[in-house]
Design brief:
This protein has 4 helices and 9 strands, in the order βααββαββββββα. The chain has about 150 residues and is of the alpha+beta class. The chain has a single domain, classed as Roll (Nuclear Transport Factor 2, Chain: A).
């Protein structure tokens, strides 16, 4: 496996940020090797549809209102690329933020190997915003994926 071409990884991240999970799924190899870790669960998927379902579970959770998703920078680590996104919104416990970092490798022009690590929802208020590194993003802030 080699580093995923930026076009494939960028297309995947852009689709997730836009909450277009079908388009994100289309970037995945049919034999995707996927694992993810959230604070309370280890996730594995045996195909693109199962990866799509994991993304929907994380981002379209009915217990939370997602207000903004912003892509993080994409970087190369030899044959692997790192990317991710930061999600902000409101839930039963109040405003929150979580970040997911992913590591990807290409296979036959699609993402064939994917690992995702999630912080889990963290409380976000005036004091919490300073603790996570800055002011809260607003839904109208513009951020283009790298």
């Amino acid at each position: 496996m080699s580093a995923a071409p930026k076009t494939v990884l960028h297309a995947f991240v852009e689709a997730v940020v836009a909450r277009d999970f079908v388009r994100a799924r289309d970037q995945l190899h049919p034999e995707i090797d996927f694992r993810g870790m959230t604070p309370n669960r280890i996730w594995e998927a045996s195909g693109p549809q199962e990866v799509e379902q994991a993304l929907r579970t994380w981002i379209d959770n009915p217990e939370r209102q997602v207000e903004h998703i912003a892509a993080t920078d994409v970087t190369d680590i030899e044959d692997t690329m790192r990317a991710g996104w930061r999600v902000q919104g409101d839930g039963s416990g109040g405003p929150f933020v979580f970040e997911q970092q992913l590591y990807a490798r290409e296979r036959d022009g699609q993402l064939g190997w994917l690992r995702v690590m999630c912080t889990g929802p963290r409380p976000l208020g005036a004091e919490a915003a300073r603790a996570v590194g800055g002011p809260r993003l607003r839904a109208d802030d513009q951020h283009e994926p790298a």
